[in-house]
Every structure is written in structure tokens, then in C-alpha cells.
């Protein structure tokens, strides 16, 4: 973490780097309270109360005079959103270097999509479009987000945001096109991704996967349901429609070989899992059922991002600001994750005699990190701060209680008061 801090510290002050992320060469050229690093640091600290309230707390700690919210709003758009995306690259080295939780020697990645409610403005409408209009004529604006999430270590490997015109499968394809696939990665996906094209692309990239198959929209699904076997390897011949979709996505139509596992749920429903983990001795059908359950971790990732961090309370009304804050939230989540991985080892030692396994309280850990994030970014000596974080996080714990079940809320998402989202 100290190495990470030094790299971030140097990056935010490097004139060459700053020149790459300014909207124009004249930006941040004069001495001002709102320098490049101050603006970036303020956005990374997130806007959870109001812009001016946050600035009044942040700027004095940086020995910077107070400024108005309007001045900050003008300064923030001089910074390209790409700087926040590229700052996430600094997490890769410490993440790879830490001793992480694994499943049978594998890092488990889960991919899933969700929507983010956006504030109303002409700029937002021009970029993201109007999602819907209610009977009163009130417009609703949404963005689509995709997370690739390490479910055992609460780390976001990749995050993507786009307009609703881009489907979650296309966002997954975007990630796959640049992802560095590791042999010890397993990607878990829900049935929204369960189609021939997705499997074709995953196999082409050499990615190990476990994907739930929808049971009502393909000839292959109908065939495996009718098959009496519970765990078998079979050949998937693409249907005419699947061939057409493959060609439109620049994929060949050669049949693929996959393993199919049927899982009987407590509801009486049969879950169909498709995987390329063909070793039935090493990865039993029970192992695969347990593996797919771990996909729920990405849902917890969105739970952290949305209700806990309140990402939808954006502090901006421009598309560029939406991208800035989206990546800033991922930055903060990964700060919590890296510190939490170390804290979990302390927790395991302290609670090994107890009935339940324990983990750190994520929301409290996020509060501890955010409270001192500016100090972490802008102060050279951080060993004392890191020790404080580890002590705080490892002392705020909750038990892990597996196999708990709750009734699913099937009411329409339109019931939520998302149209008139609170804006700052």
C-alpha cells in the first residue's frame, strides 16, 4: 500500500502526466487554489453531502483557500474523465501481489450488469438519451454499468459504463477484447449472458467459465433439459439464428464442446450450468453448484456501489462528470478491498476459535477509508495511517452465515422513486 501511495502521489504531480489529462493546454496553467491534483483528489473523495460542503472539509486539509461550488464545477470539466479510469491501473500490481482468497486455486470473477439513475440535464440527455417518460411527461435517464468482480476479495477488476443502447453482452465483449486472461481465472455469469456467441467468445479467449443457461430460448437448452443425464459433456451445434448472430459478431459458426450440469433448486426449478471445466473428478457437480452460488458476490458489489455508496447521488449534471464519478467510486471500492484483504488475515487469527467465520464490515471500512483518503493521496508518510486503517477495519466485523435464503422481491423496479433522484 505504501508503494501504491507513492505512485499515486507522484502521478498526480507529474507535469507530463497532467498535460495528458487536461482538456486544453491552457487549463491549470496559472496558480490557483483549484490545481489539477486538488480537483482530482476532491472528486476521488466523492460527493456524498454536497459539493460545497465537501470542499469546505477537503481544501483546508490541503492548505488551500475556500472556493465556491461554481468555481469547482467549472474546474472539474477541465480534467478528462480518463484520468480516473487510468488511476485504477495502479491497483493491479498490489492486487496481484497480495495473498488472496481462492477457490480450488482459482480467482473467481463474476460479471454482471445493472443500471444507474442519472440526474436530469440537457447534456445528460444528449449523451445517454431518454430511457422513458411517465404519464406526467417526466423523463427518466439511465446509464448501463458492468462490473467484473473478484467475488472472494471484493475487488473490481474492471468497470464499464455506457448508454442504455449498449447491452451488457456488448460491454462484456468490450472487456474481453482487452482483458489479460489468466489460466487461474474462472468467470461466472448469470443467464442473461447464456448464449452461443458468449460461449464462443469465452472459448476463443481461453477463459474458464461457469454460466447459467436460460431454459426457454434455444434449441440447445431444450435438448439438454430433455436429456436424462445430470452431468455430461456434449456438442453444441448452433441453430440458424445462432449462426446469424455469430456472423454479425464476427465469430465463426463451428460447433463447440461444453459440459452441462443440472442443479435441482429448493424451489423445484432445475438450474442448467454450462462450463468448460471438463474434469468431472476435480470439479464435481456439487462443486459447480457451489461455484455458481458464489456469483452472488457481484450482486453485493453493486449493493456496495449503489445503496451503500449512493453512487446515484451524482454531484454533476454533465456526462463527463458521470464518468469521473463512476471511476472514482471504483477507485474507493478497490482501496477498501486492498486494505480489507490484509485486515481479513488479522480477523481470521483473532476469531478462529468462534463458531462463525468473520469478515470486515464493508460499509464501516468504506467510511474509514474515505475519511482519510485525502491524507493518503497527498501526504508522504502513510505508514501510521495504514496501521490505523487496519486496526479500525479489523475491529469492525460481522459473521459470515452461509446458505441463508430470503424471499425474492419481484415487484417492478418502476416503484422506486428514481425519476426525481436527489441532486446536489
Polypeptide structure, described:
A hairpin with a 5-residue loop joins strand 2 and strand 3 (139-140). Helices cover 43% and strands 17% of the residues. The chain has a domain at 103-300: Transposase Inhibitor Protein From Tn5, Chain A, domain 1 (Alpha-Beta Complex). Helix 15 packs across helix 16 and helix 15 crosses helix 18 (383-395). The strands form three sheets. The protein has an eight-stranded mixed β-sheet, with helices on both faces. The radius of gyration is 23 Å and the shape is globular. The protein has 424 residues and is an alpha+beta fold.
Question: Which helices and strands appear, and what pairs or packs with what?
Answer:
Blueprint: H1 2-11, H2 15-20, H3 36-44, H4 51-58, H5 69-76, H6 82-87, H7 92-97, E1 107-117, H8 122-128, E2 132-133, E3 139-140, E4 142-150, E5 155-163, H9 168-178, E6 185-189, H10 196-205, E7 208-212, H11 219-226, E8 231-236, H12 240-248, E9 256-264, E10 270-275, H13 285-293, H14 296-308, H15 319-351, E11 357-360, H16 362-371, H17 373-378, H18 383-395, E12 397-400
Parallel strand pairs: 1-6, 6-7
Antiparallel strand pairs: 1-4, 2-3, 4-5, 7-10, 8-9, 9-10, 11-12
Pfam families: DDE_Tnp_1 (PF01609)
Domain Transposase IS4-like: 136-335
Keywords: DNA recombination, DNA-binding, Membrane, Transmembrane, Transmembrane helix, Transposition
Structural descriptors:
424 residues, single chain, alpha+beta, two-stranded antiparallel ribbon, eight-stranded mixed sheet, Transposase Inhibitor Protein From Tn5, Chain A, domain 1
Amino acid at each position: 500500500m505504501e508503494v501504491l501511495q507513492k505512485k499515486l502521489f507522484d502521478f498526480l504531480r507529474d507535469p507530463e502526466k497532467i498535460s495528458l489529462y487536461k482538456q486544453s493546454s491552457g487549463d491549470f496553467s496559472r496558480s490557483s487554489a483549484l490545481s489539477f491534483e486538488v480537483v482530482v483528489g476532491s472528486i476521488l473523495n466523492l460527493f456524498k453531502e454536497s459539493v460545497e460542503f465537501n470542499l469546505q472539509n477537503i481544501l483546508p486539509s490541503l492548505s488551500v483557500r475556500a472556493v465556491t461550488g461554481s468555481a469547482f464545477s467549472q474546474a472539474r470539466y477541465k480534467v478528462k474523465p480518463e484520468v480516473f479510469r487510468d488511476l485504477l491501473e495502479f491497483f493491479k500490481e498490489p492486487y496481484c501481489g497480495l495473498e488472496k482468497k481462492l477457490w480450488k486455486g482459482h480467482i473467481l470473477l463474476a460479471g454482471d450488469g445493472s443500471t444507474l439513475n442519472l440526474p436530469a440535464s440537457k447534456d445528460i440527455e444528449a449523451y445517454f438519451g431518454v430511457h422513458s417518460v411517465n404519464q406526467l411527461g417526466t423523463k427518466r435517464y439511465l446509464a448501463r454499468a458492468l462490473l467484473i468482480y473478484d467475488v472472494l476479495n471484493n475487488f473490481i477488476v474492471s468497470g464499464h459504463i455506457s448508454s442504455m443502447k449498449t447491452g451488457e453482452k456488448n460491454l462484456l465483449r468490450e472487456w474481453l477484447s482487452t482483458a489479460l486472461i489468466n489460466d487461474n481465472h474462472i468467470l461466472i455469469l448469470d443467464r442473461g449472458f447464456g448464449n452461443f456467441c458468449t460461449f464462443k467468445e469465452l472459448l476463443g479467449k481461453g477463459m474458464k467459465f461457469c454460466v447459467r443457461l436460460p431454459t426457454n430460448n434455444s434449441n440447445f437448452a431444450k435438448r439438454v433439459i430433455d436429456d436424462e443425464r445430470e452431468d455430461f459433456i456434449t456438442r453444441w451445434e448452433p441453430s440458424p439464428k445462432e449462426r446469424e448472430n455469430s456472423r454479425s459478431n464476427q465469430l465463426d459458426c463451428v460447433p463447440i464442446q461444453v459440459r452441462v450440469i443440472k442443479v435441482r433448486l429448493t424451489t423445484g426449478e432445475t438450474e442448467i450450468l454450462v462450463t468448460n471445466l471438463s474434469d468431472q473428478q476435480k470439479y464435481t457437480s456439487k462443486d459447480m453448484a457451489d461455484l455458481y452460488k458464489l456469483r452472488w458476490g457481484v450482486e453485493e458489489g453493486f449493493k456496495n456501489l449503489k445503496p451503500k455508496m449512493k453512487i446515484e447521488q451524482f454531484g454533476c449534471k454533465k456526462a463527463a462528470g458521470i464518468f469521473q464519478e463512476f471511476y472514482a467510486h471504483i477507485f474507493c471500492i478497490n482501496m477498501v478491498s486492498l486494505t480489507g484483504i490484509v485486515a481479513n488475515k488479522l480477523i481470521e487469527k483473532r476469531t478462529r476459535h468462534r463458531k462463525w467465520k468473520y469478515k470486515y464490515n464493508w460499509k464501516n471500512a468504506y467510511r474509514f477509508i474515505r475519511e482519510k483518503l485525502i491524507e493518503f493521496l497527498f501526504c508522504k508518510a502513510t505508514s501510521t495511517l495504514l496501521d490505523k486503517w487496519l486496526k479500525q477495519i479489523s475491529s469492525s466485523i460481522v459473521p459470515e452465515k452461509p446458505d441463508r435464503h430470503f424471499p425474492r422481491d419481484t415487484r417492478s423496479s418502476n416503484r422506486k422513486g428514481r425519476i426525481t433522484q436527489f441532486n446536489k
